[in-house]
Design brief:
It comes from Cohnella yongneupensis. By secondary structure, the chain is mainly alpha-helical. Helices cover 62% and strands 0% of the residues. The longest helix is centred in the last third of the chain and has 30 residues. The N and C termini lie far apart (68 Å).
Amino acid sequence: MENVRDPRQHINEEPRDDLNDTAMGFFAMFGFMFVVFTVAVVIKFIID
């Protein structure tokens, strides 16, 4: 490999599904924030 900066010489060894990765990240973050919100609401009701 003479020119290591030439993108044509680098084979994509592990193809990624960007839409699926984005969707999974969104739903994982949404789930985490939903849990945080639920815990905060429960704590607020316990305090009051």
